[in-house]
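Dear colleagues,

As part of the handover before I leave the project, I'm documenting each prediction I ran so the next person doesn't have to rerun anything. This entry is a single chain, and its sequence is reproduced below.
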Amino acid sequence: MADHQSELVEDARREMGASLAEMREANRRWQAMVRSPRARGTLSRYRSVLGPPETTFPRQVGDLACEVLLWPVPLWPTLRFEVTAAPGGGVWNEWLVRAPGEAGPELRTADDLRPWSCTVDEVARAFAPARPMEGTAPTRWGLAFEVAGTGPCVAEFTWGLLQRWQPAPGA
């Protein structure tokens, strides 16, 4: 997220009481785990790093019965880290979502679209119809939508959390 919102990342790091060296070491360990030739499967990796999920429940995706796992996120108490796993443990999706029972922000205008304030799903619902777009990395999503009074827009999300938006090119 530091690629888009370095100031917010610095604020969050200080709020969590972590030094820059600790943040870099945590990232180094995570990257080493992800890229290791003996890497665990994605789902077992999340379980080993995050512990047992707070909640699990089934979700039907077409004909496939999946398992959804939710973990709390200390920095954002109204969000959960959601992992959708197929039978056998293969991870299909991993991102931040609003915690069950928590109200998301009211999104009516472009001014309501502030970094780290809303999720992909919330923006897609508020400004429907929205069109998903390929992101610039595996943990990034794009979304095209139209905002009344602003026109066509595109937004970029990291781990499902809004990073930035702009008027659509050529709009």
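The radius of gyration is 17 Å. Residues 72 and 80 are 5 Å apart (CA to CA).

All the best with the project,
I.
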